[in-house]
Design a protein that fits this description.
The complex is a heterodimer of chains A (527) and B (85). Chain A is α/β, with parallel strands linked by helices and 527 residues long. Chain A folds into 3 domains: 160 residues, Rossmann fold; 180 residues, Rossmann fold; 98 residues, ANL, C-terminal domain (GMP Synthetase, Chain A, domain 3, 2-Layer Sandwich). Chain A is 29% helix and 28% strand. Chain A has 15 helices and 28 strands. In chain A, strands 4-3-5-6-8-7 form a 6-stranded mixed β-sheet. The N and C termini of chain A lie far apart (52 Å). In chain A, 53% of the residues are buried. With 85 residues, chain B is mostly helical. In chain B, helix 1 packs across helix 4. Classes of the chains: A alpha/beta (527), B mainly alpha (85). Chains A and B meet through helix 9 and helix 14 of A and helix 2 of B.
């Protein structure tokens, strides 16, 4: 049993310091190096004013430095806040202000963009440039702050920084799409993460000989398995190099040539590897565990994968960012029919319930909302107690016995064999390429354009990527914005996967008899 | 730096259909699209499909790799090589 996430690295460093912890192309970090460098980085954070309970943002492509930094942040008692390195700088600035980050790790070559996005109102006390090796008088500034070059981190003294950190302290904040237009920060503690990591490490029998793929970006909660289950097992982590990330053929070759033993990815990613990565011509004999999560796995994709790696274990993992993985279903034989794969039964020490709107259990086999309680349930949304109270509620487990539980917004049913089936959302949250998107966030972004009167975003179901996003817009009188102008407007603040790929213009929106926008009628117009 | 006809067509497509930003005039022919995070997997697929249709060529999956896709110039070089082939 471990108490804190950095203990996983320290323990692996004690047991086998020379083993690979991280391999990215020709860059290798051993457990000994990762532990020692993250100690020094923690000390550098402390030197520059980061304290226990602070937040520190990461806006940096995958690299050994990024992984050293996230462990260093946690060793200093702070929570890491990974922000999509491909998102516009305006999104980083918004997130940094929302959770008042004390520090930022980024690249000097992006300093000019950052300086523009932050203006003079930067919340952080210090920033680090992972791409500057030597201290340099020409260090660029962001919001008036000079960056600490990565080279200076090495001059800190070694050894654990000696900050007392508790299991319930926050380890990381993951920002997800928010329906009212602002992303919201999901607060997760060391104890939350370890509940999942310990289950996963044991269940999939991870060992030091394993080599784990890491495809998910660090702002996506799938990465917590890759990072921390690898460290718990003392196994090697192979993050996809940023240069190869958008290329299925490059990823497939890399994973097969490096003989990776454990893959965890979204069904969209695995589908792309099959369709465009040439997986069928490659040697998958080293693959022993293939896990997928984040969206519904098309059964025909799963059948093809199982045929390519007949000796591997396959499992469908389920859980929103707010609970990490809370149910799982192991697929022991290729499915014979096209029925949707179940999400299985509770795991990570959690309990799950299917409840009606009055929070009462539905009769056996009935449809209800999925609730989760247990060690993985988040602390809440950063700075949004009202929003947290809507989803984390006291649930009466038996007369007089209550516990806090998370209502997922996912509808589910329990099959006679005990496995849960996922039946869709009760709101306007959708998945596109495994990313979780609130249609309302895109709609409110569109409405902020001066020419836009009304905007509705629709998710058109798609076999390969779950959903495609299209918008229907009503312009204000005299408004002249066209599709390209509105897409450019969205791309300035939203990640690119949230920009609608087509926008239709209408003079008004169809309404239901109750006056609400008729999304069903619109789906026909937008398709 | 002079721009070939192929480069101009690909550059215009990227700006309007993938990057959603016609104002991004500083997108140079040698700008690294991957390093700057401008092209993701869906953007790559859209670009490949566009080039195949626009230039009447086929681009096999095993050619869709960083070296052939990392800049407007690299994409145009691959397209022109396949048109000549």
């Amino acid at each position: 049993m471990f108490r804190l996430l950095p203990d996983l690295v320290a323990d692996s460093a004690r047991r086998h310091a020379a083993r690979d912890a991280v391999v990215i192309e020709s860059h290798r970090l051993s457990y000994g190096e990762l532990d020692a460098m993250s100690d020094r980085f923690a000390r550098s954070l402390i030197t520059h004013g980061v304290r226990r309970g602070d937040r520190v943002a990461l806006w940096i492509p995958k690299s050994p430095e990024a992984i050293v930094a996230l462990y260093g942040i946690m060793k200093a008692g702070a929570a890491y806040v990974p922000v999509d390195p491909n998102a516009p700088p305006a999104r980083l600035a918004a997130i940094s202000r929302d959770c008042e980050v004390a520090g930022l790790i980024t690249l000097a070559r992006r300093a000019a963009e950052l300086d523009e996005a932050f203006g003079s109102r930067a919340p952080m006390r210090a920033l680090w440039f992972a791409d500057l090796t030597a201290p340099d008088s020409a260090t660029p500034r962001v919001a008036g702050l000079p960056g600490v070059p990565w080279g200076a981190v090495g001059t800190e003294s070694g050894g654990p920084p000696g900050v007392r950190v508790l299991e319930d302290d926050l380890a990381y904040l993951l920002y997800t799409s928010g329906s009212t237009g602002e992303p919201k920060g999901v607060m997760l503690s060391h104890r939350n993460a370890l509940a999942f990591v310990e289950w996963a490490t044991t269940t999939f029998a991870l060992a030091p000989e394993d080599r784990l793929a890491n495809h998910a970006p660090f702002h996506f909660d799938l990465s917590t398995f890759d990072l921390f289950a690898a460290a718990a097992a003392g196994a090697a982590l192979y993050p996809v190099p940023p240069r190869a990330a958008p290329f299925p053929a490059a990823i497939a070759r890399l994973w097969c040539e490096a003989r990776l033993t454990v893959w965890y990815a979204t069904p969209s990613t695995l589908g792309l590897l099959l369709a465009h990565g040439g997986l069928a011509e490659l040697d998958l004999s080293a693959l022993r565990v293939l896990l997928f999560a984040g969206e519904v796995m098309p059964v025909r994709v799963l059948r093809r994968l199982m045929a390519l790696a007949p000796r591997a274990r396959f499992a469908n993992l389920y859980g929103p960012t707010e609970t990490n993985v809370c149910t799982w279903y192991e697929v022991t034989a290729p499915p014979v029919d096209d029925a949707a794969l179940p999400i299985g039964t509770a795991c990570s020490g959690d309990e799950v319930f299917i409840l009606d709107d009055a929070q009462q259990p539905v009769p056996d086999g009935g449809v209800g909302e999925l609730w989760v309680r247990g060690g993985t349930v988040m602390h809440g949304y950063w700075g949004r107690p009202e929003l947290t109270a809507l989803v984390v509620q006291a649930l009466e487990l038996s007369p007089g016995l209550t516990d806090r539980a998370y209502r997922t917004g996912d509808m589910a049913r329990r099959r006679p064999d005990g496995n849960l089936e996922f039946l869709g959302r009760r709101d306007h949250q959708v998945k596109t390429r495994g990313y979780r998107v609130e249609l309302g966030e895109i709609e409110s972004t569109l409405r902020r354009h001066p020419d836009v009167e009304e905007a509705v975003v629709l998710a058109i179901p798609d076999e390969e990527i779950s959903h495609r996003l299209r918008a229907v817009v009503v312009l204000k009188p005299g408004g002249t914005a066209d599709m390209a102008a509105l897409q450019a407007h969205c791309a300035r603040t939203l990640p690119r996967y949230m920009v609608p790929e087509a926008i239709a213009f209408r003079s008004q929106l169809p309404r239901t008899s109750s006056g609400k926008v008729d999304r069903r009628a619109l789906a026909g117009l937008a398709g | 730096m002079t721009e070939t006809a192929t480069e101009a067509v690909i550059r215009a497509f990227l700006l309007e259909e993938v990057l959603y930003d016609r104002q991004l005039q500083e997108l140079s022919l040698t700008e690294n699209l991957i390093e700057r995070g401008l092209l993701d997997s869906l953007g790559i697929l859209k670009t490949v499909t566009f080039c195949e249709e626009q230039f009447g060529i086929t681009i096999p999956d095993d050619q869709v790799l960083p070296d052939n896709m990392e800049s407007v110039r690299a994409i145009a070089r691959m397209v022109d090589a396949r048109r000549g082939a």
